[in-house]
Structures are given as C-alpha cells and as structure tokens.
Amino acid sequence: MGVRQQERDQEIVVLLLDAAANLAVPIVIGAREASAIAMAQAGLVTPRPMTHDLLRDLLGAVGVDLERVEIVALDGGIFFAELVLSNGSRLDSRASDAIALAVRTDSPVLCSAEIVAVAGVEVVDVEQQREVERFRDFLDHATAADFTAPGGPHEPGAPPDAGGQPDDSPP
C-alpha cells in the first residue's frame, strides 16, 4: 500500500495489503528504507544508483530475476524476508530492503498467512465508515413520522423524494 508515518509515535511503516482478507500488515522500517521505497513507488530516479538500484542492476547483469519476496517470519516485532531468485536461490533479507528491491523490479511481495493472522490490522474504508456513521446518526434521530411520511423513509430534515414515490417503485 505504501509508506506511512504513524502520528501517535512517529514511526515509519510500510503497509502490505492482503486485499482478500481486508487486512494490512504494518512493518516498521527506517527512514532511509522508507525513502527508497517511496521514491521507487513514485518513479523517481536518482542521478546515481542507490543501493537497491544497484542490487536490481546487478541481478540483471548476471541474468537472474527476483521472482518474489516472501515475508517468512516475525520474531520479537522483527520481520524476516527472503528473496526468491529465478535460479532457485533464496537469500535472507531485511523486510524493508526486500520490499525496496521488489518495488524496483515489479516483483510480488508475499506474506505468510500466519504472519498476516498475527500482525494484520483491519483496513478501514474511510468513506464507507462515514456512510455507516451517517446511517447510525439517522437511526439515532429517526422518528415514526420519518417512516410514515409520504415518499417513505428519508433523512430527518431532508425533503422526501420529489415524486413522493418510494425509491423501489416504478416511476
């Protein structure tokens, strides 16, 4: 999902999204790694290659691709990753470095289900949350007249539908 700075404690995290489970895994990273990831996501190119650019270029020069990054363990709040290469090699890596390289090579970042279950936090759709809050507010202030008025239910203070017909009836 990207790099974010948490307001409450000023930590920088990279967020991995598990869209199927609607969960995000926040991984605390350093400022340099955060910058490297954000720059690559934004498509910014530096005049000289940064470390992760050099690693990408080195892999290309020896004819090896980064197939994927796997976040394989979580121990004491530290995430462990492996680079899975096209030649069958698996290399131990810091999660932040692995993600920075994956962004540069358009390689997928995978996270084990166990880690998502332990470290994942629910992703909240802000607009959906606002709509639920508006509906709850409507229910808190609704009266019987809101449901018996011509035109059916409507938000308190809002005029009923112009045609006076319920929303599901034919025009």
TrEMBL record:
- Domain BFN residues, every copy: 1-123
What are the record keywords, sorted?
Membrane, Transmembrane, Transmembrane helix
- Stretches of Low complexity bias are at 160-171
According to the record, the segments passing through the membrane are 12-31
Annotated region Disordered: the residues are 145-171
Q: Which InterPro entries match?
A: BFN_sf, Bi_nuclease_dom
Keyword Transmembrane belongs to the record = yes
Q: Which domain of life is it from?
A: Bacteria
Against PROSITE patterns, the record matches this protein to:
BFN (PS51658)
| Protein name per its UniProtKB record | Bifunctional nuclease family protein
